[in-house]
Give the backbone structure.
Amino acid sequence: MSWSPAWIAAAARVVVDADSGRLTLVDLLDGMVTARVPASLQGFALAARFSREEGLDAEGQLGVRFERQDGDGDWEPVHESTASFTAGQPVTYAWVQFRVLRVRAPGPLRFRLSWRADGGRWRRGPVHALQVILLPDGEQLAAQLDALPPLG
């Protein structure tokens, strides 16, 4: 049995169709602008699609791990899960919805997909990179926003 990742993507939200299990990615992300770091991005999701061409008659488990890397730092796991698949199922999806994504520094923020079938060895897959851009005079803008009275 041979699974391979077709894609990994970042979005503001993932919606899952209850009948088909298909995903809809809302507001795809390839970068973000922030007034200061560290910062928090509200509403963030990672999603991946896997396909298999061999072993379609088999059932089993697919382990999925999403990892992140800030700049040139080490890769660190941010989510790990296991999905069951059935005989005849050529495609499966994995996703995770975070309430908040903590951004530590400007520059590249990478997410890597790793997977394993039926408890085998972890395989490294594709990487999705976000570019974190720090606004000029961002600290001044952030201070002004912080000073605004609360709404309502």
Observations:
- Residues 54 and 78 are 30 Å apart (CA to CA).
- DSSP finds one helix and nine strands in the chain.
